[in-house]
Amino acid sequence: MNPPDHEITAETDIEVEKLEPREALKEVIIYNPMKNPERTNATMGRVAEVIGIIIEDDEKAKFLDDKCKSKIKGHELDEPLTADEGTAIADILATDLNRDQVNRAVRLFYESEISTEEVVAMHKNYKIPVSRLEDDLLPVRGKGARIWDSKGKSYIDLDSNYSATNLGNANPEIARGLYNQANLLISQKEDRIQVARTRFLREIIGMMPGDLTHFYWQNSGGEAVDKSIKIAKAYTGHTGVVAFENGFHGRTHGAVAVTYNKMYREPFGLDKESWVHFAPFGNLDAVEKFLSSGDAKSVILELIQGEEAGINPATREFAHGLRELCDKYDALMIADEVQTGFGRVAEADDQWFASHVYGITPDIITIGKSFGGGYPVTAVVTKKHISEKMHPGMDGSTFGGNPMAMVAALIATRQMRTLGLPGLAVKRSKEFASGLKNIKSPMLKGFRTAGLMIGIDFDSRENMIKVQEGMKKYGAHSSLSTGPTMRWMPPLVIESDEVQEVLGAFQKSLNDAQ
After folding, report:
1. Mean pLDDT to the nearest integer, 479-489
2. Predicted model pTM
3. Which domains does the chain carry?
4. HEC profile for 292-304?
């Protein structure tokens, strides 16, 4: 199988734009199952949306829209066009639009053949509402720290998909690697040896803290947390676990059980689990009480609490004191670094994890999100003697560490090392901190940074949301928050001028809200 003929890379535009207008439009309105098997034919709803985007004159847009609609018969606007209808519409657009407008239309159709309204409707109709539906924009393309929506507007991404896209929102090298691997072997179970995983192990071993060298591959952060708890219980022979107030560890059953917010635990009866003991974050005496009494033999924490605490770093004294307590009572220390890993919170070069920043080595670490470059891959990593308490049949994973995930992880990790991602995070963190110091508003109560985890405190949640929403108008997209705290976690490849754009958008939105 040959590579796609019309490949998109970060450096070049869509190849079909080099075709004659009619042919270029046909290429993106009528899908070719050999070239783009992931697509469908465009809908008339998308045709109307694209016309409205590229023609500012409402009357002219309506005229062209009506002209195109006259070519469809017998189906709804949100249903895919037939090939004949698509060809007729391509003819009309090629005739009525100039070359620049055609190129814009080609780009918009390539990015989505379905209208924004149709996408929103499908999600509202069929999504189980386990989370709030974010329908403020429909992302269709990324490059570096930027995303583009279905209407062609660009935003600087301040969420990084919960720190999963540290390298940005698109990656031509990963795309090529995944294409190559999919032609060879898409999936193998976790316990099957494979070439792709061997390549990645060679790359990752030297990046891990201390003697953390044994891996169990997973697909999500919650899964990794669940399995870390199982490994800890198997090693200690004890079910008790100390977790912390305002800690967050994921959405799977075990991860929710050790997450402090009762709202997450109560609906599932997990607020009554006798094996979980919550201690105030930073309170060593409370932890020692649980360990010394024999109530627990494991401790799990985020060294920098994010989701529920609004970016709350542990003190060095607490982190080191916790390590000492675990050693004293022969307990295991589990560091959940699913969000903080791979340079996110670095304070110096080569600090890949918060554990490096704090100068400690946990007994078990959960890593995830970003080392797949956005592709789903996580892992539990532990020491050899701890890993030996797990035996065949005690656990398993169909997709954990599959060849596709390992290829993405290898390429992403190589890029992180080549770019010196921790060093970039340090530089950009300083730029954000410097800029935020100079922004004054009665709404603001302070801010803090841990690398490129940034928390900005407001006088009320209402004002925070108002400013957060207002920033989108100025091209900076943020949706993460904790109470009255706005959280920013941009891709670590964000550039210096983009930092200034974000700060400018923040200042303008503050001014608008006052």
Report:
1. 97
2. 0.93
3. 15-121 (no CATH), 138-167+421-513 (3.90.1150.10), 209-413 (3.40.640.10)
4. HCCCCCEEEECCE
